[in-house]
Design goal:
Number of domains: 1
Number of strands: 9
Helix content: 10-25%
Order of helices and strands: EEEEHHHEEEEE
Largest sheet: 5 strands, mixed
Distance between the termini: 31 Å
Structural class: alpha/beta
């Protein structure tokens, strides 16, 4: 497990016999590919945006991430403030972007900013 200042860059665990990773922006097992985009793999965990889907993921698993709010209209992840879900069939990897813009609530960016939570056992999504 990679750490910085005693904080983990990601948390990996098993839920319902499936590998699951919770990370800020993206997770990549093929570190050489990800290093070609970022000088250090830790930057991928922190800053990856669309490339998190293109190069990231884990085989037979699930990635829970944020970093790019789903209220950003110019983003691949745009979903009008709802959780963005993507399935990579080649890796059998499910991606959930749960950053629904709650940090922008009260601004004039979007009226659909909300906090999203996912219950990993059954992948149920809740909004506040």
């Amino acid at each position: 497990m990679v750490q910085r200042r005693n904080l983990e860059y990601y948390k990996r665990f098993n839920i319902n016999l499936k590998d699951c990773i919770v990370v800020h922006a993206g997770f990549c097992e093929e570190k050489d590919i990800c290093r070609s985009r970022y000088s250090v793999i830790e930057d991928f965990y922190i800053y990856a945006r669309e490339e998190a889907l293109d190069f990231g993921g884990i085989r037979n698993g699930m990635i829970i991430f944020g970093h790019t709010p789903t209220i950003a209209k110019d983003s691949l992840y745009y979903n009008d403030g709802r959780v963005f879900k993507y399935y990579d069939k080649d890796k059998d990897c499910l991606f959930y972007n749960i950053d629904c813009g709650c940090g922008y609530k009260g601004s004039n960016i979007s009226e659909n900013c909300r906090l999203a939570c996912i219950r990993l056992e059954d992948e149920a999504i809740f909004y506040v």
